[in-house]
Structure formats: C-alpha cells, structure tokens
Write a structure and sequence with these properties.
Blueprint lengths: L2 E4 L3 E6 L17 E6 H13 L4 E3 L1 E2 L3 H12 L8 E2 L7 E7 L2 E8 L20 E5 L10 H12 L3 E5 L9 H10 L5 E2 L3 H8 L4 H12 L2 E5 L5 E5 L2 E5 L12 H14 L4 H17 L9 H11 L1
Parallel strand pairs: 1-4, 1-9, 2-7, 5-6, 9-10, 10-11, 11-12
Antiparallel strand pairs: 2-3, 7-8, 12-13, 13-14
Helix pairs in contact: 1-7, 5-6, 7-8
Length: 310
C-alpha cells in the first residue's frame, strides 16, 4: 500500500522540563535540549520509519546548513529523503519548543522556507497514493484553501483516501479561516483534530457531540485525539473509543503526529478502525513517555504492547 505524507518539515529544538524561565540576564540549567527533525510531516515520517512503514515524505527544506542537518537526522532515522525539495536562497524553518509538566508547552518559530511551499512543490505522483496524509496546513500558507482543495480532489479522483490534520491556527481561528477549513472537510476521509481543534472547528465543546457533528459534515471518519484520555472515533456505522495507558510525560512535542503514524500503520495493515486507532494511541503514548533518540516505538514493541493490552 502506497502512503504519502505531505506537509511541513523543519528543525525542532525541544527544551524539556522547563519549570521556570530565566530572569533577564541570567541562565537556567536544564537536563535536556533535543535537536531533531520537526514539523508535523517530519514527525510523522520519523514515527512511520521506526514502525517499518514504507512511505514517501513530500516536503521541502531551505538552502542552508540547517537543511543539511535535518536531512542527516531523517536519514539516520530511516526516512527516505529522495522526495524532499530545496528552496534556493531560503533559510530552513526552525521551531523552539519549551515544555513543562506544570503548564502547556509553548513555541517560538520561524516559517523560513515554508512560506514558499506551494502547489507546484507537490508532485502529481504524491497524490496517487492509497493513503495521503495532509498535515501542517497552517504553517504552509501557500497551500491553504484552493490548493489543498485541488489536491484533495486529485487524491479522491485517483481512488486514494485522504487524511487531514491541519493543526492549530496561530492567528486565532478567524471566521474566514474556519469557513474555508470546513469547506474542505467533505473531501476528507479521515479528519484528525486534537481536543481543542475539535471544539473550535465544530463549535461544540462536548467531544462526542463535536465528533458526531464533524462526521456528519465529512461523511467519513473523524478521530479526535484527546491526549491522556486516548481517542474518540466516529465513522460510517461505527463509534469507538480507545483509552491511553497512564504514562510519565517526558516530551509531548509531536504526540499527535505519532498518533497519525500509528493510524497509518494500522490502515496499511488493513486493521479494523478500532484496532488501528488503538495502535495509534499506543504509538502516541510511547512517544510522549520516551526521550530521543528512542522516543518512536518500533513494530515489535508495538505488537508486544498491543498483546499485553488485549
């Protein structure tokens, strides 16, 4: 089964367990600062590679030493970089994540080369896969609206299934943004919001009611990623939940992307939806409870954990 992952790629710098920020002019020592491939597409590709899932990563990088580092780290993680494009004369996007168990994480980011990632950057063959995940919508402005609509239609016309995880709108979910996003959903076979995105897009706070409303809009599957509460899915003729095991939180950056990778793993193995969602929940839970370079679970460990939970 051919899988394409289309979206944002850059460099992540993750500072974990930052319980207090340094006062001006001072320095605070912490245990871990991790440098790794980032962006939703990059995170998903790394998790898929760890699971042994063959896929194509369609994304771009800038034209600098940061891009060289990202390519090297992807290759080290088993990701095929042959479909990556270089944006000449442009710096690579970088995101700095600051995490703490005492508060929600925060990010500082540059968009760099992502400003130039447009419809012409995505080759036609990327849209002929059996499963196509579109991710990082709000960090790739040139793909928002009609370009993404066109690509979704092309995938459907080729007989593929579309998966869509747009992420959060950094501009605060303006009405026009919501209207445009919701107009895309009837072309989406699998919509993958987190809890906050689910509530905002549906305009409903209750997760089950919101998931049901968006399922009625898409006609396909809506699988809401609910963090420590696992996931909730509603699709044609089915309704399922998957609980997440209690785990120590070490690194939450990319948790939703790990979930997406786990779901793609399940679909590639033709598992029933509830079982695919269960695998996705396991993959995401393991990602948040581990630190690099071992944060992405491998297939034998996934099978062991799946059997242990059965």
């Amino acid at each position: 089964m051919k899988i394409s992952v289309i979206g944002n790629l850059g460099l992540d710098v993750v500072a974990a367990q930052v319980d207090r920020m340094p006062p001006p002019g001072t320095e605070v020592m912490i245990d871990t600062i991790d440098v790794r491939p980032g962006g939703s597409a990059g995170n998903t590709a790394m998790a898929l590679a760890a699971l042994g899932v063959r896929h194509e990563l369609h994304a771009s990088l800038g034209d600098d030493t940061t891009a060289t580092l990202v390519r090297a780290l992807l290759t080290e993680g088993g990701v095929d970089c042959s479909h990556l494009r270089t944006t000449p004369g442009t710096p690579t996007a970088v995101s700095i994540a600051v995490q703490s168990n005492r508060r929600d994480r925060g990010f500082l980011a540059t968009d760099g080369h992502l400003r130039s990632y447009d419809r012409d950057s995505v080759p036609r063959e990327a849209l002929t896969a059996d499963l196509v995940l579109f991710t990082g919508y709000f960090t790739t402005p040139a793909l928002q609206g009609p370009p993404t609509e066109q690509m979704l239609r092309q995938v459907k016309a080729s007989g593929g299934r579309t998966l869509f995880d747009p992420g959060s709108d950094p501009d605060g979910w303006r009405p026009h943004t919501l209207t445009t996003l919701k107009s895309l959903l009837p072309l989406v076979d699998v919509f993958l919001p987190n809890a906050r995105e689910l509530a905002v897009v549906a305009g409903i706070e209750d997760p089950r009611a919101a998931t049901k409303a968006l399922h009625e809009l898409t006609g396909g599957h809506v699988i809401a990623k609910l963090g420590a509460d696992g996931c909730l899915g509603i699709g044609p003729g089915e309704d399922f939940t998957c609980s997440a095991r209690s785990a120590r939180t070490a690194d939450t950056t990319g948790a939703g992307d790990a979930f997406n990778a786990g779901l793609l793993y399940g679909l590639a193995h033709r598992l029933p939806w509830p079982r695919a969602a269960r695998d996705a929940t396991i993959v995401a839970t393991e990602a948040v409870s581990r630190t690099s370079p071992h944060r992405h679970i491998r297939e034998p460990d996934l099978i062991d954990l799946r059997n242990h939970r059965s």
